[in-house]
Backbone:
């Protein structure tokens, strides 16, 4: 097992009616920026619950944070925080709103051009240099409610880039599974697949000695395959919704990544498809993931076979046979979750996609991706072209 440090200070507040605790979780006397997205919180009652819980606090609202939050939009919020001396932020929404708030938190006191935060993958480690924040989760998917990473889109250059650091953990996250009942089916499908691929990025690498991490990862995968299609059809079922929400958090709160190798190339390629074509994040992962496993089959086949045996109960005679079946079972699950797993099924203007992504990766110096740093630009090209 690799050396690791496990640090996660987020107070995770889970269950029905927990939004009522908001006033006790926010520091007394805080001046709050209440950040949210496109308005779904007004329809599902979450906005009213949050406002009721924050009576007596000085609250400034900032709405309109997009899916795939835009740098340009977030800088408007940064200006408000600076001008009005706001000292606490509450993100009410899904991963996009929470990611946006992480950027706002770090950018307010950043010395230099804030676009450098994304261009240079700045890590924030000093809690005195960020604005503290909490979250009220409305869409389980990204795990952003219990981790310190974020992804932000620069609209001007069509780039989707990351930031993070130990200072960007939420102080608290209120996670009430009843919000799932008001979500559109497509968003639930996306959330399940996003969580599923988060686990695969940390699990589907090569055999190692971290036995417990594998078993926890497989447990999350098994749970998502068991409940995923059902929760999309029956979002008001609390058993399904609560397990879905907890799986999404556990998929990316740092626990299963400790002491093990991880990949993340599927995400890095997928981000480009979202930036280029506005394809939902989870759907880009469904397009790229299976083909990455096929192209990198020789270095992933042992773990693919293990995954096939333990999660899908495949019974092939050889490692190669079991690994191949595992990829097939994965694609079947993605289809069951409403995913279209070819780029041509999601956009029409895709003929130069592989060339564009390879050139962009080379410009950034991303020439060795994956757990073994063996996903070269030519491998990226092959993966993307196979995904057409």
Residues:
């Amino acid at each position: 097992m690799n050396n690791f440090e496990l640090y996660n200070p987020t107070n995770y507040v889970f269950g029905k009616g927990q939004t009522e605790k908001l006033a006790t979780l926010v520091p007394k006397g805080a001046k709050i920026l209440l950040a949210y997205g496109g308005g779904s919180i007004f329809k599902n009652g979450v906005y009213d619950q949050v406002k009721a819980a924050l009576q007596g606090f000085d609250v400034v609202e900032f709405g309109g944070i997009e899916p795939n939050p835009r740098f340009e939009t977030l800088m408007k919020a940064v200006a408000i925080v600076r001008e009005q001396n706001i000292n606490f932020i509450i993100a009410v929404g899904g991963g996009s709103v929470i990611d946006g708030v992480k950027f706002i938190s770090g950018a307010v006191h950043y010395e230099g051009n804030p676009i450098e935060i994304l261009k240079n993958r700045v890590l924030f480690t000093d809690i005195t240099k960020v604005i503290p924040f909490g979250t009220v989760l409305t869409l389980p998917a990204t795990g952003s409610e219990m981790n310190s990473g974020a992804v932000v889109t620069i609209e001007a250059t069509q780039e989707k880039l990351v930031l993070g650091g130990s200072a960007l953990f939420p102080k608290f996250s209120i996670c009430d599974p009843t919000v799932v009942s008001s979500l559109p089916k497509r968003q639930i499908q996306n959330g399940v697949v996003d969580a599923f691929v988060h686990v695969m990025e940390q699990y589907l690498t090569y055999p190692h000695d971290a036995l417990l991490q594998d078993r926890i990862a497989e447990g999350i995968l098994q749970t998502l395959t068991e409940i995923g299609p059902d929760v999309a059809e029956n979002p008001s079922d609390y058993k399904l919704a609560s397990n879905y929400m907890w799986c999404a958090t556990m998929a990316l709160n740092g626990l299963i990544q400790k002491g093990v190798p991880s990949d993340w190339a599927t995400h890095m390629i997928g981000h480009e498809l979202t930036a280029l074509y506005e394809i939902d994040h989870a759907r880009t992962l469904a397009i790229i993931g299976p083909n990455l496993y096929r192209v990198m089959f020789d270095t992933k086949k042992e773990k693919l076979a293990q995954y096939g045996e333990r999660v899908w109960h495949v019974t092939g005679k050889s490692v190669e046979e079991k690994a191949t079946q595992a990829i097939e079972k994965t694609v079947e699950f993605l289809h069951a979750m409403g995913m279209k797993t070819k780029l041509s099924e999601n956009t029409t203007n895709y003929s130069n996609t592989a060339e564009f992504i390879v050139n962009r990766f080379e410009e950034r110096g991303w020439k060795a991706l994956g757990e073994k740093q063996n996903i070269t630009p030519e491998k990226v090209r092959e993966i993307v072209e196979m995904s057409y």
In short: The chain has a mean pLDDT of 97. The chain has 15 helices and eight strands. The radius of gyration is 20 Å. Residues 93 and 137 are 5 Å apart (CA to CA).
